[in-house]
Design goal:
Chain lengths: 778, 118
């Protein structure tokens, strides 16, 4: 049984059981109470009705006794009534009694009191034969036997109901015995009144309309009234025992089906001592009508309630069990692996726990779904990656296979081309190739398991091997030249490349040494290095020698020149004759030549060894040119040369002043030597041209033939060797000029035409920013 | 005026001594650089003529010692340069206080006079 049904049943039980119990209890109680109440009400009504009827009957009985007493004066007896004379008298008396009673029945206003109205009075004998009557037609008729049944009482009595055969009408008859003087009964006097007189308004007057009242006599004759207050008699068709019980003095109430077939409650009561019973019937259907109505209403309400409950249950099942069922179904779907299920999204703000549960579940589902999707896509991606990896792996395998082939080829090549040695991480030899065995002169068996120290020559120091080990243990390749010792004690050199073979953890597992025999090369190198050392030593010696030589050569010149100068100083040391002065001058000029020669040789040597140093300073070009002019002026005077020096005014130079001076002095001296002895001209110019300063020394000498121009900057070259003697040149001047010019990052060249003079040019880079106004200097 | 001449070469010291004497300058000559140093430390000279290129204890050693002992700045010294020293070395020396001038060997005597008297 599912939750839904359980819920519905639970609701029904909760709602219906109390209702049914309550209804049952209340209806039963109400109907019982009502019945009792009705019975009591009927009973009390009947009591008052009985009193009324008894009063009426007593009145009539008293009247009948009164009427009987009126016959006493006649002293009648059973014989006399047979006498016609007495019969007439009886007749007359009866008539007068009737008249009198009728007149008494008329009220003061002339209305007739129907209850008091006597229809007829008759006298019957002991044979039940009417002997005298106010209604003549009755005389001779017999009266019913039951009229006599109570004669013995000697009291007036209710005789019974009688149908007047003549008048075809029903009457109530009251009788009284007629007795003679001795008290013997000889006849009966009876008073007949209309049934109407019992209750002119009808028997049911004063009762509820659902109650019917009627009278039943001992002969089971029933007297009823209808709604039109019409009295009728009929035989009582009910079971006789009820009447018997009633007449026996018991107050009874009984439910039964009446003559109309309706269920009724009957209450029966005896009226006085008479054989008359009054019965009140209540129609149960009408009594219970309000209850039935109530029941109907309750039923209606119950039905509505029931329908409501069922609806509620359905609603609940929809709101509670339906979502739960949906959840359960969804869960089953999910358990079966179907994630493409959906729950209706509820409002997040809903306070309904089920909605929240559904939302929560939906979120969970979405999460699981997204996780599943992610997982799927992840799996897909991973699968693809795996496939890619597989593919790459296969490709790699091919590559590796190829590499292995290459490697084996490579190994072969390596084994053929180099000495190969492999050690484990502890330095034990695990592999050597044939070449290694050959060069080390050990067999493979001797080498395997040994440390490579076996070939150590002890040429290299400990630091050398420490560096090597640190390098390769660090995972790097070490390269170097190794001097090793073969088994026979001979040394051999190898160019070694030692690489660690790294394991999976990145740490070296083996070391491979690839060694190339370089013994011959090393021998050559050693020789070369020795030769170089020798050269260097000799160079140094040469330098030291030249330095020493210069010093030593210069030193003797100091006193020579000094004393010559002192000798010429006539003012201080006394005068010499002209020849002596001439000799002294020759000594001095040769000493000077020697001095210059020494100086030039030194410069050339410095240039050759590229040891010439320069002192770069900043100076004014104009001042420099002026000094140059001043210092060379005396040279010009000796040959009367026209000496012109020009320069731009505002220029500063950044170079070695002394060396520049050396060049220009040299060139000027050359020009002085070569200008003609008459009208010689020398022009020294400095010009700024673009980013360079061009110095030029021009003369009007013989010029230099083209074919000799290219040799002019060579050592000890002189155009005319005879000129050496003439000019006293060393043949090194121009070489030094070229060397200095180049050392100052400049150039030197000449322009000359034979017979048209010579021009030397020096080009030096001009300072980039050193153009300063002249008044800001010095 | 009192001049100290320090040079290991006796010919040179002889020449300079005679020349200066003839020109009227009192002078003391020593051929031992260490003796020269002691003399400079012990006595005040107007000018010291100092050869740079001397064996064992050079003129540069003397100058460095004087500089270390804070004497150099109060002493006027004219040095003779030797070709064994480079131009830049000489220029370094010339920057120092007390170094008056540099005469390049072989010396022009009139240049020497100018250097002493200036």
């Amino acid at each position: 049984m599912n939750l839904n049904k359980k819920l519905v049943i639970l609701f029904l039980c909760i709602a219906l059981i109390p209702i049914i119990i309550l209804e049952g209890i209340s209806i039963t109680e109400i109907s019982d109470d009502l019945l009792i109440q009705k019975e009591l009400a009927l009973d009390s009504s009947l009591v008052s009705k009985i009193a009324d009827i008894e009063h009426y009957m007593d009145t009539r009985q008293v009247q009948s006794k009164l009427f009987a007493s009126t016959f006493l004066p006649l002293q009648l007896d059973s014989n006399k009534i047979k006498d016609p004379t007495f019969l007439d008298r009886i007749q007359i008396q009866l008539d007068s009694m009737l008249v009198e009673s009728r007149s008494n029945a008329i009220g003061n206003l002339g209305e007739i009191d129907s209850r008091s109205t006597i229809e007829s009075i008759y006298v019957s004998d002991l044979n039940s034969k009417i002997i005298a009557s106010t209604q003549r037609e009755l005389i001779g008729h017999k009266i019913p036997d039951e009229f006599y049944m109570q004669m013995s009482k000697n009291e007036p009595y209710f005789a019974g109901f009688q149908k007047n055969q003549i008048l075809s009408n029903n009457y109530v008859t009251f009788s009284n015995n007629l007795t003679d003087s001795e008290g013997r009964v000889f006849g009966i006097i009876s008073i007949q009144t209309s049934l109407n007189a019992i209750e002119p308004e009808g028997l049911s007057y004063g009762f509820e309309n659902n109650q019917e009242i009627f009278l039943v006599d001992s002969a089971s004759r029933q007297i009823t009234t209808d709604s039109k207050v019409k009295y009728s008699t009929q035989n009582w068709n009910m079971e006789h025992q009820f009447i018997d019980r009633c007449f026996s003095g018991q107050l009874i109430s009984q439910q039964y089906i009446n003559k109309d077939g309706k269920e009724v409650l009957g209450v029966m009561k005896l009226i006085g001592d008479e054989n008359l019973c009054i019965i009140g019937e209540i129609e149960l259907e009408k009594v219970f009508l309000p209850i039935y109505n109530l029941q109907f209403k309750l039923l209606t309400v119950f039905s509505i309630l029931l329908a409501g409950i069922i609806l509620l249950a359905i609603l609940f099942s929809r709101t509670i069990s339906h979502p739960i069922k949906k959840l359960s179904t969804t869960m089953n779907e999910i358990r079966n692996g179907n994630f493409n299920v959906h729950l209706d999204k509820k409002s997040d703000s809903s306070s309904n726990e089920l909605d929240q549960l559904t939302n929560g579940f939906e979120k969970l589902l979405q999460y699981v779904k997204s996780t599943q999707d992610n997982l799927k896509s992840l799996v897909k991606v991973q699968t693809r990656k795996l496939e890619d990896s597989n593919k790459a792996l296969r490709e790699n395998m091919n590559v590796i296979k190829k590499q292995q082939e290459n490697l084996s080829n490579f190994k072969e090549a390596l084994d053929k081309s180099a000495n190969v040695l492999i050690t484990d991480v502890d330095g034990n030899i695990v592999y050597v190739n044939d070449d290694f065995c050959k060069v080390s002169q050990y067999t493979r068996e001797e080498l395997l398991g040994q440390n490579p120290r076996i070939v150590n020559s002890h040429y290299h120091d400990k630091a050398f091997f420490k560096t090597m080990w640190e390098t390769i243990l660090d995972g790097k390749t070490w390269k170097g030249d190794l001097k090793n010792r073969a088994k026979d004690g001979n040394y051999y050199w190898s160019k070694a490349t030692i690489s660690p073979l790294l394991g999976g953890n990145g740490k070296p597992e083996q070391f491979i040494a690839i060694l190339t025999d370089i013994t011959n090369q090393k021998i050559l190198e050693e020789k070369l290095s020795e030769a170089l050392k020798n050269v260097q030593e000799s160079e140094l010696q040469k330098e030291e020698f030249s330095s020493m030589m210069t010093h030593e050569l210069n030193t003797p010149l100091v006193p020579i020149k000094g004393y010559c100068e002192m000798l010429k100083d006539c003012d201080t040391f006394g005068s010499l004759n002209n020849d002596q002065i001439d000799f002294i001058s020759k000594i001095e000029s040769n000493a000077t030549l020697l001095e210059r020669l020494i100086s030039d040789l030194l410069d050339v040597q410095k240039l050759d060894m590229k040891k010439m140093s320069f002192l770069i300073t900043e100076f004014s070009l104009a001042e420099f040119m002026n000094e140059l002019k001043e210092n060379n002026q005396h040279l010009m005077k000796t040959k009367n040369i026209e000496f012109t020096v020009t320069s731009p005014p505002k220029l500063f130079l950044n170079t070695d002043k002394q060396r520049l001076r050396q060049i220009l002095d040299n060139l000027i001296r050359n020009s002085v030597d070569f200008v003609p002895s008459k009208d010689g001209k020398i022009l020294v110019e400095a010009k700024l041209k673009e980013k360079n300063i061009i110095f030029s020394v021009k003369d009007n000498g013989p010029g230099i033939p083209k074919e000799k121009q290219s040799n002019i900057f060579k050592k000890f070259y002189q155009i005319d060797t005879s000129a050496t003697r003439k000019h006293g040149g060393t043949g090194l001047g121009l070489v030094i000029c070229k060397g200095i010019a180049e050392g100052l990052k400049g150039k030197i060249w000449l322009e000359s035409e034979f017979g048209k003079g010579t021009s030397f040019f020096i080009c030096l880079p001009a300072p980039e920013k050193k153009i300063v106004l002249p008044n800001s200097t010095q | 005026m009192k001049v100290l001449i320090v040079d290991d070469n006796q010919d040179i010291t002889g020449l300079l001594s005679k020349f200066l004497k003839a020109k009227g300058f009192d002078n003391v000559v020593t051929n031992d650089p260490r003796d020269g140093l002691e003399r400079i430390k012990g006595e005040k000279y107007d000018v010291v003529l100092l050869d740079i290129s001397m064996p064992e204890f050079s003129g540069i050693d003397i100058i460095q010692t004087l500089e270390r002992e804070q004497i150099l700045k109060n002493q006027k010294i004219v040095i003779f340069s030797a070709t064994a020293f480079t131009t830049s070395q000489i220029n370094e020396l010339l920057k120092k206080d007390g170094i008056q001038g540099c005469l390049k060997k072989p010396i022009q005597l009139n240049e020497l006079l100018t250097a002493i008297t200036s």
